[in-house]
## 1
Amino acid sequence: FYVVNEVVIKRLGHIPIHKGDFHLLPPKVQRFVAEKAELMRPRGIYICDGTQHEADEIIDKLVERGMLSPLKAYENNYICRTDPKDVARVESKTWMVTRDKYDTVCHTPDGVDPIMGHWMSPEDMSDELDSRFPGCMAGRIMYVVPFSMGPLGGPLSKIGVQLTDSNYVVISMRIMTRVTSEVFDIMGDQDFTRCIHSVGLPRPVKQKVINHWPCNPDRVFIAHRPPEREIWSFGSGYGGNSLLGKKCFALRIASNIAKDEGWLAEHMLIMGVSRPCGREHFIAAAFPSACGKTNLAMLQPTLPGWKVRCVGDDIAWMKFGADGRLYAINPEHGFFGVAPGTSDRTNPMAVATFQKDSIFTNVAETSDGHYYWEGLEDEIKDKNVEVTDWLGNPWKLGDAAPAAHPNSRFAAPARQCPIIHPDWESPQGVPIEAIIFGGRRPDGVPLVFETYGWNHGIYTGACLKSEATAAAEYKGKTVMHDPMAMRPFMGYNFGKYLDHWMKLNTAERKLPRIYHVNWFRKSRDTGKFLWPGFGDNIRVIDWIIRRLDGDVGIGQETPVGIVPTKGSLDLEGLGPVDWDELMSVPADYWKEDAVEVRKFIESQVGPDLPAPIRKEMDDQEARINAM
Ligand code: SAT
Ligand code: MN
């Protein structure tokens, strides 16, 4: 029980506390809440405790208002349609705010816009905030959401408090993070990340609210202040724009904390893989959004005797332990996965996870109360069932437009995953032996290769590219650079980020080996995928683990890394595979790529590129040119 000081009382003015006890908030949280309430002027304050009772109450209210509707075929599953203008992250309106521009972006030549990090000055940010936040919660409730990223009180965990006027955000945060008032008890002297979110539509509302989804797409603005550990988000209720614990905190802010404290915050899944002999290995893997991290994290092996268990599917916080090994935790508490393409064939464990207590956003719905999306065509039992698409219109198989939005999502509690790892909430984390980078590369890039060492691995990660997906506002399928799968989530100068990675390499540490995979290569003749993917990816993991064991005979050197020697992958039970094309490192492709990559690195990282990483580039280019 804390005394509330006079200034705080004055700032709160006459705003009533609808739920919770203000006196139980630590003084620094009281000040934060009062200051922001004074600014945004909600009609009431609701302090969340994270209990089931509270969630039920909010969900009932949302169902009554029509923002959520139950999917009757399941227990506690709900569907939500957003305003069709608010469906993905908005990278062009997402900013990092630092006094020195070059704390955020690299020194790019005149006329070249940095693609990693999106910088705004504190003065410009103030103007942007001033034109949006004063009074922005008028007529709405301000929820105070206390949450922990990572197991409560764990040595790698961090605390945040999100203020929001979206109850959809409240119930989604409850799935995706650990929301509990215990956060206030353990906070002590610890700092917390201040997350301020508003849908940006004060009452009375002038424009029409579509689908009971208030938002303000023309005025979207998302700003991060790393030194202050503060996030401001306005105008969007969607995923990465509004669930501030996820990309904003756990990647953009946390990567800054990690740099200061000597650890890593990365866009990576974490999986435990057990071999037939019973030995288990932990692997982290970075792929851009919507490239199959969730599928790999929950892989169902097609090789007998193998077992995969999921620790996390999107974000890894990793720190070297006293024993010199790299330990990873999943800071999240749920999965926010891409729905289309998820089925019993592609990811049965994800399907099992979201059979109850889950929220589906922008998917389609059947008249018998099931969710529906592209990829479930064969799983509809009653072919006469009626489908309502994500826009609320009747939809039939064969219609040109998709039934579900390509970036439609499920939010499901991680603990419901049948193969969640027993140690997934271990506060110390799990020891990582291999790091994998990958993306959607239709041409030129072999199924798998091992890099030549830590710095070459970092260089390979820095060169990561992938076809654009629906997870952000890009159109079409061009292959884009996405260094370390972090391009949209970079929290600071990418050159310094590479330097930070490099400096983790000290003599007493056992560094993970770094690999690159590409499940998405297509035949130059037929245009068809060369590799079946999904459960058969265990065959690649098996090769990686045998390499970790020191099996040198199964690899052969190429200019870009070590690829499997012919026949060294277990292909038992697979149909025909065009090994030569799948594993080839074509000289024409890589010579062109080397030119393009150098141009990219020179223009985007330039003088910020650490010399040892430049040497990796030079050496690799020389190897390629000798092909
Ligand atoms: O919208 S999110 O950023 O949460 C998902 C993603 O793009 O990875
Ligand atoms: Mn992601």
## 2
Amino acid sequence: MNLETICQQVNSITKEVGVFIKKQQISVADIETKSKNSLVTFVDKTAEKKLVNELSKLIPEAGFIAEEGTSTKKGEVYNWIIDPLDGTTNFIHGIPCYCVSIGLIRNEELVLGVIYEINLDELFYAWEGSKAYMNGKEINVTPTLTLEDSLIATGFPYYNYKKQTEYMNLFQDLMKNTRGLRRLGSAAVDLAYVACGRFDAFYEYSLNPWDVAAGAFIVQQAGGKVSDFSGGNNYLFGEEIIAINPHINEEFLAKVKTYFGK
Ligand code: 2AM
Ligand code: CA
Ligand code: CA
Ligand code: CA
């Protein structure tokens, strides 16, 4: 099977699981705490089991890097990177911004990404060599030329608080010198919105590979630039990400380097 066919199948698997998530009713008793501010429910876990089960049929030799640990099988060449429900806190609080996020790596390289924003019924996807799409239509990052005219998304760090001062200083600078800042609470949705031109950029640190795999790939296929805070390529496993329209990348990176001392 080629990657385009695989992507079509992942699209329908992802949508099906999204529909399952949408139908679930949860109560306070269903909420488990993994650590202080890390919540999970049976919905996250059941969704992940369904995904692992279906994706195993698509590429039998592939392994998994999945947030809730359903499978720890390591694939020699292919590995799926899965976040069954990105934006769990939103989901629990009834805020309608959360998604299913599926990435695929061949060796260390991203080759496919699918994000399903459940409540808006928006499916974002791309595969190696393709454009980026939302519900069948090509999407692109913004053509904005300056940070002054840019709308920037971020997420607040929930561990590694050591870098919090650097984060807040950058935040304050951007607050004064951009069109505005937004915080949706789902890194995958933030990335999908950079890909389709709703945001000019997204940055966050203290993220896991499953938060960013699909979105980072889709942004790049949509003409965007993705890097870590030094401008390097270590954004998938390196816990720092900038996803941005390439015109404003230098200007943005200069600010990040100033505050984070890179
Ligand atoms: P999640 O909903 O899958 O946990 C928002 O800043 C991003 O960070 C989301 O993608 C969210 O993913 C993740 N996130 C928020 N709190 C987290 C925590 N305590 N541990 C791990 N990831 C978290
Ligand atoms: Ca989580
Ligand atoms: Ca996540
Ligand atoms: Ca999750």
